[in-house]
């Protein structure tokens, strides 16, 4: 079997899977996308005192402001998650979750750690993809005047931005050593995420990337195997749910495609 035939067979299988799951895939994508916000909101409830005291110690802001930080994170994340899942005022919900990312970036000084900062940007990419799919098509700036390029729409560029930001998540997973496993891991993952980013064979590439990331996530972030009293459990859980949210963004790409700014869309004009 030639390479083209093998690729075509893989696309046929992917299309069949998507047809069978088209009714549940958007729901699954949204559920995965908000997973890290939901987990962190629950964390705020069970670690109320620890989170408040940390903010107080970090910023010397006092008991009241520390408590307000926890309440904002708790209510903001949980309400945003429920609004996204219920598809109620999704644009407002995405705005709330964006605000939570910004608040935590400043409060926890995430920007001082490249890995966590890139992951926050990647998570933002997933939210941008969600926003692109939930909003109405933008109207022309000049009412009644047809646009020359039907793909020159905010939604198209939002989809492109979201895909590019998802790339940043994979950069935090690269292994910089010469072991055979890590070389193969880096090669396969890099090819897949680049295909998703430029929008070539996008649905197939994103679907394979979802399976690839999920297996790596379960293997490397198995927090359920770590005793409750160890701090490492919280770090692994954080990584696990952040990766699940990026998987949710990729599932949105699988469900709705890459949009106009992609090689797949360009090929249709040839």
General description of the model:
The chain is an all-alpha fold and 270 residues long. It is 75% helix and 0% strand. It is built from twelve helices and no strands. It has helices at residues 3-21, 25-33, 35-46, 48-59, 62-86, 90-107, 114-134, 154-171, 180-198, 202-220, 231-256, 263-267. Helix 7 packs parallel to helix 11 (231-256). The longest helix has 26 residues, at 231-256. The protein is globular and about 65 Å long.
Short description:
The protein is mainly alpha-helical. It has helices at residues 3-21, 25-33, 35-46, 48-59, 62-86, 90-107, 114-134, 154-171, 180-198, 202-220, 231-256, 263-267.
Topology:
Layout: H1 3-21, H2 25-33, H3 35-46, H4 48-59, H5 62-86, H6 90-107, H7 114-134, H8 154-171, H9 180-198, H10 202-220, H11 231-256, H12 263-267
Oligomer: single chain
Structural class: mainly alpha
The low-pLDDT segments are 137-151
Distance between the termini: 27 Å
* Average pLDDT rating: 85
> Helical element count?
12
* Beta strand %: under 5%
Q: How many runs of DSSP E, i.e. beta strands?
A: 0
What integer value in Å does the Rg equal? 20 Å
Order of helices and strands: HHHHHHHHHHHH
For the report, how would you describe the main beta sheet?
A: none
**Helicity range:** over 70%
């Amino acid at each position: 079997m030639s390479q083209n035939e093998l690729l075509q067979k893989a696309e046929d299988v992917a299309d069949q899977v998507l047809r069978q799951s088209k009714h549940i895939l958007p729901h699954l994508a949204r559920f995965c996308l908000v997973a890290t916000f939901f987990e962190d909101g629950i964390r705020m409830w069970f670690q109320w005192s620890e989170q408040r005291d940390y903010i107080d110690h970090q910023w010397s802001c006092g008991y009241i402001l520390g408590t307000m930080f926890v309440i904002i994170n708790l209510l903001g994340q949980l309400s945003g998650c429920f609004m996204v899942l219920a598809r109620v005022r999704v644009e407002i919900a995405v705005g709330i979750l964006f605000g939570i990312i910004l608040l935590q970036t400043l409060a926890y000084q995430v920007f001082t750690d490249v890995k966590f900062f890139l992951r926050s940007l990647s998570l933002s990419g997933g939210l941008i993809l969600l926003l692109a799919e939930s909003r109405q098509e933008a109207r022309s700036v000049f009412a009644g005047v047809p646009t020359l390029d039907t793909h020159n729409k905010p939604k198209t560029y939002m989809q492109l931005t979201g895909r590019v930001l998802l790339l940043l998540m994979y950069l935090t997973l690269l292994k910089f050593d010469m072991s055979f496993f890590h070389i193969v891991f880096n090669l396969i993952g890099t090819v897949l995420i680049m295909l998703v980013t430029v929008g070539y064979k996008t649905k197939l590439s994103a679907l394979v990337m979802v399976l690839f990331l999920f297996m790596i996530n379960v293997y490397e972030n198995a927090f359920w195997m770590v005793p409750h009293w160890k701090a490492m459990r919280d770090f692994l859980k954080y990584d696990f749910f952040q990766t699940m949210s990026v998987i949710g963004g990729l599932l949105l790409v699988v469900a709705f495609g890459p949009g106009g700014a992609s090689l797949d869309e360009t090929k249709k004009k040839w």
